[in-house]
Design goal:
The protein contains 10 helices and 17 strands. It is globular, with a radius of gyration of 20 Å. It has a single domain, classed as FAD/NAD(P)-binding domain (3-Layer(bba) Sandwich). Strand 15 and strand 16 form a beta hairpin.
């Protein structure tokens, strides 16, 4: 097969890289052994910066295919604190729906898609190879890029419940040895995902640590099979070699509690396309490191809160007493700068300035509201 760019892996990261390079005029082929749409155990919540990165690729998430949430809420032992995104909203969207939409975009721009295909790495004839075959990437190993600086794993389990969303936020519930995050994905269903360091701790085990949440997520409301996945904090030494580049989880990853995995993949895809157009993958290496810094910092912070209950409870008390702390933390998380408007401190309404990457989206009626509960 003759092609300019061969992408190994047809998940969201591979499709993003294919779309980004095809839009720059390259002939692009994607190959994957799966038959779409592909599912994966994940939280299914897209932050505003993720939606902006998708928009850069020409992909829009419609209201009909998703459910909006205005911000993030942390809950721990009866205490809760919440903040809205400084600009715009997030969207809960089923992973299979997102995959279908990205396939449609790839086909529309002229990417060649080969599903159910097994790749013979040594037989590839192309100018560039993009490895997007996930955390356990075989292409990365074949390219001699498997050396890493850091590799720590946790384990996640996810399923869906036929329940009308009870909140306008994505919720993170902190248990004794785990976290469960809940994302509204449709008008009548939510996604619940548990993450811990224990490979045997399933979602039902996690809910025993969270009785208030367990009362909402009743067994009779389950509508999907429980799926599991490994989530890693992994940093490889290099993301390219010669004319082979890594993207998405194959190029390193942050813990899923950050909700930033797809955002990183989409931004990496755009950066990689620019570097290939310039013929300089060293440029991609530099940009890749810059893209990852914010998510890596937030992952360290959130994992510290998860591992150290006393630190977490002190932080929750501080954020509940001073809501601006959590608002600034969330703004930093999505790549925006938060400016506090002191004109009327009594109403809890804080102004926001967008200084993040990608397109700015307009806020909804509650997009600037920040409060503690």
């Amino acid at each position: 097969m003759s092609t300019d760019i061969f992408v190994i892996g047809g998940g969201p990261a591979g499709l993003a890289a294919a779309i980004a390079t095809r839009r720059r005029g390259f002939n692009v082929t994607v190959a994957d052994a799966i038959i779409p749409p592909a599912d994966k155990a994940c939280g299914e919540g897209l932050m505003p910066d993720t939606l902006a990165a998708l928009s850069t690729l020409g992909v829009s998430i419609s209201a009909a295919d998703s459910f909006p949430f205005r911000g993030i809420r942390f809950l721990d032992r009866g205490k809760a604190v919440a903040a809205s995104f400084p600009v715009g909203c997030g969207r809960g969207v089923r992973r299979t729906t997102l995959h279908r939409m990205m396939i449609e975009k790839a086909e529309a721009v002229g990417v060649k898609l080969r599903w159910g295909a097994h790749v013979d790495f040594d037989a590839l004839r192309c100018s560039w190879i993009i490895a997007a075959d996930g955390e356990s990437s075989l292409a990365r190993k074949w390219a001699g890029l498997d050396a890493r600086l850091r590799d720590r794993c946790r384990f996640g389990f996810r399923r869906h419940y036929r329940i009308e969303p009870w909140t306008d936020c994505m919720e993170v519930h902190w248990g004794r040895t785990c976290q469960v995050y809940v994302t509204p994905v449709t008008t009548d269903s939510v996604c619940a995902a548990a993450i811990s360091r224990d490979s045997q701790l399933r979602l039902d085990d996690a809910l025993r640590q969270l009785p208030d949440l367990a009362r909402r997520l009743k067994p009779g409301a389950i509508i999907s099979t429980e799926r599991g996945a490994v989530t890693s904090s992994r940093k490889p030494k290099a993301v390219y070699r010669g004319r082979i580049a890594l993207v998405g989880d194959a190029s390193g990853s942050v813990d899923a509690i950050t909700g930033q995995g797809l955002c990183l993949a989409f931004r990496q895809a755009t950066a990689l396309a620019e570097a290939i157009e310039c013929g300089d993958l060293a440029q991609y290496q530099r940009t890749h490191r810059q893209i990852a810094r914010r998510a890596e910092w937030m992952a360290r912070l959130l994992l510290t809160l998860g591992d150290r209950a006393q630190v977490r409870r002190a932080a929750m008390c501080a954020m509940a007493a001073h809501p601006k702390i959590f608002a600034k933390m969330l703004a930093a998380h999505v790549g925006a700068f938060y400016e506090i408007n002191h004109s009327d401190p009594s109403d809890g309404d804080y102004g926001a300035i967008w200084a993040g990457e990608g397109a700015r989206t307009e806020p909804g009626p509650d997009a600037r509201r920040v409060h503690a509960e």
